[in-house]
Amino acid sequence: MKRPKDMAQTLPTETDQARIFSHVRNANDSEVTEDYVELIADLLDSQGEARAVDIAKRMGVTGPTVNKALARLVKEGLIDKQPYRSIFLTTAGRELAEKCKSRHVIVRDFLLSLGISKAVAERDAEGIEHHVSAETLQAMKAALMRQD
Fold first, then answer.
1. Burial letters for 44-69: b for 16+ Cβ neighbours within 10 Å, e otherwise?
2. What are the backbone angles phi and psi of residue 81, rounded to the nearest 5°?
3. Residue range 26-147 in CATH 2.40.170.10
4. Phi (first) and psi of residue 80, to 5 degrees
5. How far is it between the farthest Cα atoms of the chain?
6. Closest by Cα among 43, 52, 31 to 96
7. H or E segment to which residue 82 belongs
8. pTM of the model
9. What ranges do the domains of the chain cover?
């Protein structure tokens, strides 16, 4: 496949490359938080409750791993949690979950529009949604709207 001349391989400056890597590290840090909040919202919406044991099963991690993540979410003000009770999202947690879900749907639907299979689009969207820029996300959304 031919690439336009303006897309020729050039290395970014040291400053630009450091900024890119910093952005990726920050996205990786927030990825776990976003995954937990989104899963809690899904459990609350589908089952009426979110329990640590259900989160552990769906995330494929141990109970102590979930408890550590939940403690962090409490500190960040994203969930309310009481011992032996269901987990609830705060207003900030619900807003973050809705933002994550929206990004996921846009990325997934964009991949589907390219002819990617549903299973692969769903899996790939799970990773891309945390790293996609607002500019790229808006372009994906605009492309989807043009198809309708």
1. beeeeebbbebbbeeeeeeeeebeeb
2. -145, 135
3. no
4. -115, 135
5. 61
6. 31
7. none
8. 0.77
9. 26-147
Q: How far apart are CA 19 and CA 15, in angstroms?
A: 6
How far apart, in Å, are the Cα atoms of 42 and each of 7, 36, 54?
A: 41, 10, 11
Residue 129's CB: how many other CB atoms inside 10 A?
23
The two tokens of residue 23 are: 């952005």
> Which regions of 4-143 does DSSP assign to beta strands (E)?
79-81, 87-89
What are 10's two structure tokens? 């050039």
Question: Which of 24-38, 58-72, 97-111, 128-142 shows the lowest mean pLDDT across its residues?
Answer: 24-38
Q: What does the pLDDT read at residue 30?
A: 82
Confidence bin at 111 (pLDDT 50/70/90):
very high
For 35-84, the pLDDT digits (tens) are 999 999 999 999 999 999 999 999 999 999 999 999 999 999 999 998 88
Q: Which residues contact 52 (CB under 8 A, 6 or more apart)?
A: 63, 66, 67, 70, 87
